[in-house]
Amino acid sequence: MSYRDWLVGTVVSTTQQTPNAKSIVLDVPGWHGSAAGQHVDVRLTAPDGYSAVRAYSLASTGPGHQVELAVDLIDDGEVSPYLVEELRAGDQLEFRGPIGRWFVWKPEQTAPVQLIAGGSGVVPLLAMIRAHTAAASTVPMRLLYSVRSPADRFFAEELAATTNVDITLVYTREAPDGWPAAPGRVTRDVIAAATTPASENPAVFVCGPTGFVEAVATSLVELGHDPVAVKTERFGGS
Amino acid sequence: MAIFSRGFTGRPREAQPDLPPGQFLTEDFPVLSAGPTPTIAQADWSFTIKTELGATHSWSWDELHALPIEDVHTDIHCVTRWSKLATNWRGVSLDTLFAGVESSYDYVMVHATGGYTTNLPLEDLLDGKAWIATEFEGEPLEPDHGGPARMIVPHLYFWKSTKWVRGITMQRNDSPGFWEQNGYHTYGNPWREERYS
Ligand SMILES: Cc1cc2nc3c(=O)[nH]c(=O)nc-3n(C[C@H](O)[C@H](O)[C@H](O)COP(=O)(O)OP(=O)(O)OC[C@H]3O[C@@H](n4cnc5c(N)ncnc54)[C@H](O)[C@@H]3O)c2cc1C
Hints:
The complex is a heterodimer of chains A (238) and B (197). Chain A has helices at residues 80-86, 122-134, 156-160, 188-194, 210-222; strands at residues 7-18, 21-27, 39-45, 51-57, 66-72, 92-99, 113-118, 141-147, 165-171, 203-208, 230-234. Chain A is an alpha/beta fold and 238 residues long. Chain A folds into two domains: 7-99, Translation factors (Elongation Factor Tu (Ef-tu), domain 3, Beta Barrel); 113-235, Nucleotide-binding domain of ferredoxin-NADP reductase (FNR) module (Rossmann fold), CATH 3.40.50. In chain A, the strands form two sheets. A six-stranded antiparallel sheet of chain A has the order 4-3-6-1-2-5. A five-stranded parallel sheet of chain A has the order 9-8-7-10-11, sandwiched between helices. Chain A is globular. The model of chain A has no long low-confidence stretch (mean pLDDT 95). Chain B is mainly β. Chain B contains three helices and eleven strands, in the order E-E-E-H-E-E-H-E-E-E-E-E-E-H. In chain B, strands 1, 4, 5, 8, 9 and 10 form a six-stranded mixed sheet that branches. The radius of gyration of chain B is 17 Å and the shape is globular. The two termini of chain B are 22 Å apart. The model of chain B has no long low-confidence stretch (mean pLDDT 94). The interface between A and B is large, with 42 and 33 residues. Bound molecules: flavin-adenine dinucleotide (FAD). The site of flavin-adenine dinucleotide has 21 residues of chain A, from strand 4 and strand 5.
């Protein structure tokens, strides 16, 4: 079995993550685990044989035959509405992977790690946080996480309970009561104030909608980060 | 044999003979890059071909624009499964750039700002198959799409069309470039779905 073969997983459970997004846990006989940051190709097939394939990052990491994805519903989308609204426990889902060897964090890496996510872009970064926890890594790891409102946080409870990673939330539309900052985007000033500086040579992982990644990665380079140390995953959209 | 997805019908669709297997049409222009988008001034840009004989052939921005510029009308196919049909580019053919280059090697490594590389057989760059493009749909090429200049090799998956292209080194063997070392196919023919290695 290679990662080029299509595997069939059975949905074990789905969990509402935000008003628009669900996480999906699958049981996949023959799965050999994945490194943190990798993704799979998910394939849906209609009764006439037509199929549609999209990439989804793995929130799960390490060995084991359970796989976790988290999918944000894109309004006029073809695949994400099906995964969020139709798919349920007991259904089968085809995919292949794990794919990608660049946007990957491994516990043996020793540089401090700065993670920066927008919305569903937190999925592969959560895998890195989980890998960090599982390895009891002592490498400093920080997450800057941008979401529209408190309800839009993916994996909110798990992140709140995470103690080995320094987490900063940025709310772009609506902040919780008493939040010290007004809602706003992740600007260069926000990045400068809330992330590991370039002088500490962190490995930086940026993930989210394409526009978010473009803006953040540009700011990081302006703040002195070596472009080669900034790894990006663009999920699409503008 | 694929399994059917209960309750999935997919988008309304017509047969698309121009679409390679596993691709879907998009109207917008998604961005796939491994890192930040570099900003490169035209004045700082140049393009160089290096051979095993030690010769280098180099063009500045102005020298490139003094060469014949061709209109390229083509479909493009990204390994992340989107395709755009009937796109319009302007650029200089690799045939023009290779006209005075002598080499006995059959492969090339294409280099970009930022250290990215991709490998190709030389024959995939010649005979009207590849260009150094500086315009897309009548406008100067935007930095996030590879501006000021990218290679386009439209008959292969689009990661072979190096953004922010700076040069070519002739190589004896088909040694893998950046994406090819990171899990992508060494050749990348979309009609044979050569996505991953
Ligand atoms: C490597 C990789 C990993 C990914 N991981 C995840 C993940 O973990 N979770 C997740 O939810 N998504 C992820 N995505 C995005 C996912 O692959 C799909 O693009 C997304 O679910 C939309 O698919 P769709 O079929 O619903 O929409 P489509 O039918 O493909 O598109 C419908 C419209 O929405 C636009 N659009 C497409 N993607 C987005 C987007 N991300 N944001 C805004 N508009 C968009 C399109 O341009 C189009 O106009 C990932 C993408 C990549 C490349």
